[in-house]
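Closing statement on the adenosine-5'-triphosphate sub-project.
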Amino acid sequence: MTETSGSAVSVRGLKKVFGKVEAVKGIDFEVAPGEVFGFLGPNGAGKTTTISMLCTLARPSGGTALVAGHDVVRERDEVRRNIGLVFQDPTLDGYLTAEQNLRFHAELYGLPRALVGERIRQVMEMVALWDRKDGKVMTFSGGMKRRLEIARGLLHSPRVLFLDEPTVGLDPQTRSAIWGYINKLRRTEDITIFMTTHYMDEAEYCDRIAIIDHGEIVVIDSPEALKASVGKDRVQIQTGDDEAAIGALRERFGVEAAVHEGQVTFAVPSGEQFVPRLFAELGVPIKSVSVSRPSLDDVFMSYTGTTIRDAESDAGGANQWMRAMARR
Ligand SMILES: Nc1ncnc2c1ncn2[C@@H]1O[C@H](COP(=O)(O)OP(=O)(O)OP(=O)(O)O)[C@@H](O)[C@H]1O
């Protein structure tokens, strides 16, 4: 029996408890067909636990989730047939060639024999591995393995592809290549992509992102809308006397600033309008000034009160100017 909500993924009150740890605290969200939807959050936020429940690898403690119109608890097999998975830990067989790995997967999924060869070629070409099809996987680099995992995840033409931290541990060049393939994928295949990441720059590629922190969704929207919602620009100035500049900013403008990356840094609603006043009224010589629009870092800070890096390292202390920004 199938309930069709029209969404590729539909989640209501989804919850997962491990003993005393509430890893996912009753979350709600919808992913539209064809969307690239990202879960952005620090380590331990509950991203992998959520994706595991959606992929039927972990049983929810409460709530419901439909994937491709099927219930993840009551219709596990239907869900599994309709999804592709690329998880953090590689599950390829290093002793087999790239092509043999895919053939094995095709058999597991019962793909019609007559179609397998052509489909394998298609997905391997998509991730630029066709010329390495006869190479043993143990001889592949980390990036090649990840690309092969993506090809394998696509082999049975899933409706939803789940990618758990698809570029974690890869060098920047390989990360950008992987994103090239994901972007190609969204153009060529009729597919919805659900991914997790703790990289801000990757979240930018998503149509919409959900920021997750401590098992809760803090906000969901497009990266653009989220950045606009922060509503403040970042201003950085180099001065002859940082202490005096910070004091003057507080006294004359009511703005909290801190030294960040060697520059006096603060946030104001409209950087362009503020800068002329700054030169006229600060009373401390300014050597240079730069104004930047909010980034997803600022968004994360604004909604959670911490930076994603601080949340991960729990180092605290740093980035006081961002904390000031969060006081909206
Ligand atoms: N099998 C488990 N048993 C007990 N606690 C768990 C288990 N799996 C996850 N947790 C806990 O649930 C919370 C969420 O973990 P989860 O792996 O979902 O986070 P994450 O956002 O995916 O982080 P990462 O990026 O490090 O994978 C953490 O506190 C984690 O320690």
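Confidence is low (pLDDT under 50) at residues 315-328. With this model delivered, the sub-project is considered complete and its resources will be redirected to Aim 3.
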